C-alpha cells in the first residue's frame, strides 16, 4: 500500500475537506481518511503489480513484497481490488459530496494505474500526466465537503498540480541512475541539466503565484487574510529559491535540497491555509 505515501496523499484530502466544510463532521472526515487510504493504497498496489519486474532492478524497491517474493501477483491483485472497492464504497457514503468524491477517487486510480504507470517507461510526459491524479486528493476533499467544483476547488487543485513538477523533477534527478537502470524515462530532456531545472523553476513560480490568488480576488468559500497570504508567499519564495539554485548549479546536492523542500512546502502551505481560516479570519 506504500502506507507512508498513502498517508501524505490523504492528508491533502483532509485539508481540502477542512477548507471547504462549514459544519464539521467527525464521521465524514473519518470516512474520507479511511476511504482515501484504501483507495490510494489500491492504486499503489496496482502500480507495484505492473512494475514488479522493474522494481527488482532498483535497490530502493527491490525489497518490496512482489519483487522480493513475499506475495504472488494474484494475491496482490485480490488485495488491491478489495481495498479499492471498499475504499470507494466508504467514500460514496460521505454525507455531502460522497458520490462525486467517489468518482474523483476512481478517476485518480485509473489515471495513475492505466496511464501514468505505463508512461513512466515511455516518456517524461508521465510526470505531467501523473500530476493530475497527484493533485486530485485536495480536490476530492473539497468536493466531499461542498459537493461543488468551482474556482476555489480549481485553485487548490492548481497549487498541488504545479507543485508536482519541481517535486518529481527533483526526485527523478536524485534517482536518475536507478530509474534508468529499471527502464524508466522520468527526467525531462533525458539528462540532468538546465532543461529539467527550468521546468522545476517555472512551475515553482506559477505555484507561488496561484497560491496567493485567494487574497487578491473575492473567491467564494476560499479566502486568505493578509497574514496568511504573506506567509504562503514567503514559503513559496523559499521553495522557489531552491529551484533557482538547481537551475544555476545543476548538481545533485541542489536537487536533493529541492526534493526535501518539496516535502516541507506542500503540507506547511496547506496547514497555513487551514490555520488562516479557523484562527485568523
Provide the residue-averaged pLDDT.
Answer: 92
Order of helices and strands: HHHHHHHHHHHHH
* Rg estimate, integer Å: 19 Å
Count of helices?
A: 13
Number of structural units classed as domains = 2
The dominant shape is flat
- The fraction of residues in strands falls at under 5%
Name the poorly predicted regions.
Answer: none
Q: How can the largest sheet be summarized?
A: none
CATH class of the largest domain: Mainly Alpha
SS-derived structural category: mainly alpha
Task: State the fourth-level CATH superfamily of the largest domain.
Answer: UbiA prenyltransferase
Q: What is the tally of beta strands?
A: 0
Whole-Å distance between the termini? Answer: 38 Å
> Judging by the overall fold, what is the CATH architecture of the largest domain?
Orthogonal Bundle
Q: Would you give an account of this structure?
A:
- This protein is mostly helical and 281 residues long.
- It folds into 2 domains: 1-149, Tetracycline Repressor, domain 2; 150-281.
- It has 13 helices and no strands.
- It has helices at 3-20, 26-50, 52-55, 65-68, 73-92, 98-119, 125-146, 151-174, 176-182, 194-211, 213-216, 226-249, 252-280.
- Helix 2 runs antiparallel to helix 5, helix 5 runs antiparallel to helix 6 (98-119) and helix 8 (151-174) packs antiparallel against helix 10 (194-211).
- The protein is flat, with a radius of gyration of 19 Å.
